[in-house]
Predict the 3D structure of the following.
Amino acid sequence: MKITIVGTGYVGLVSAVGLAELGHRVFCVDTDPQKIEILKSGRATFYEPGLDKLLKKNLANRRLSFTVSLAQVIDQSEIIFICVGTPPQPDGSADLTYVKQVAASIQTLSKQGKIVVTKSTVPIGTGAMLEQILNKKPGRVFEAVSCPEFLREGQAVYDFFHPDRIVVGADKQSVGFKVINLFSAVKTHKMVTSRETAELIKYAANAFLATKISFINEISNVCEKTGADVEEVAKGMGLDKRINPYFLKAGIGYGGSCFPKDVRALRQLSGGNGYNFRLLKAVIEVNNKQRQLFFEKIKKVLGSLEGKKIGVLGLAFKGNTDDVRESAAVDLIKKLVKAKAKVSCFDPQAVANARLVLNGRIRYCANAYETMEQADALIIATEWPQFAKLDFKKVKKLLRQPIIFDGKNLLNHQLIKKAGFSYYSVGRS
Ligand code: UGA
């Protein structure tokens, strides 16, 4: 099948490369000429394990190409995917400007009717609204379809080929199955639903996962008051198949480009439809509070932070990504800098992106050990697996005092305490 993908951001590029790998011919369009040049040279514009390799392979076998001109490629394909951004507006609702602009361009440029699939996360009713824009003029019939994306950053390539499910929302079943068939080589549960249902599945899934995280973070706070251990509580809960062990890791709260935005958007769209989604208000409050509580824990141990030298490991919103959007690590560094601490930090991938959002005198180090030389304390703020594998004898020698704050419960607290560290984590004493 010939497919056009508009928007080569995270969702667009991974989907394009994945669909090409499945054997389709994929034309990618983006308005940013610089991005297009980089992609044409076979390099991804963000860090994602395994993506560069598949990008190069599918460019070489000519199943994938990149252009800034939608006009040039639009009539070569039967199906168009919209994968542009839906950034949050000040009230939390999703901004659909780019999605609407793409629909209007398709309407103007396309000679024939087509299936237009939205992969961007959009509010319920967007599919219906897009179909109106697309069918503004009679003569051609466009079908708007929703195919929400469930990829996790850092594991997106794996997730594309091994998804838990593929959901397609369409007005006509036959159209829905045409889109589902693009993924016929992928063995998983496949669902064709109404457009509205598909649109809501995406928000509901992200909001539920965020709720699990806020729930376990609340439990971690009860653990701190009672002497229970949140890691063991999570394990004990997760062994119940109805609960499962995933997304029960306590820490300094969720971040990223999806959970914070989507939880706010679902709350906003429920309110806009006359329903007060009380639970989500608490999920957001708990997440913000969790970041603050961890900062207060640091202050309680170290006293005034003014002039204190603090090493921070991690800038990305989670491990295996260079993305710092709504990162709890970045938020924490901002708080430390405001309290006049001297911050030295390291992240395996996210330094360049962090530099764009962090101000103040921050030292960016070439490796983890540099951050802790003569530091008053070390903070782990991102769950990069390699931070758990440091040489802790060396860490102890480098630190001025052996204090570790672990915002991701990454280390084995018994071992690290035995090694002579004062160790503070989340929900474990
Ligand atoms: C999330 C969803 O997991 C994907 O299914 C979805 O497609 C994606 O959003 C999206 O809407 O595009 P992602 O943002 O890549 O994926 O990251 P997650 O792995 O879900 O982690 C989100 C945040 O929650 C991170 O800050 C992570 O550190 C935190 N987290 C995760 C916890 O604090 N505890 C956990 O147990 C799990």
In short: Residues 259-424 form a domain with the Rossmann fold fold (CATH 3.40.50.720). The pocket of uridine-5'-diphosphate-glucuronic acid is lined by residues 121, 149-153, 206, 209, 213, 247-249, 251, 254-256, 258-259, 317-318, 383 (CB under 6 Å).
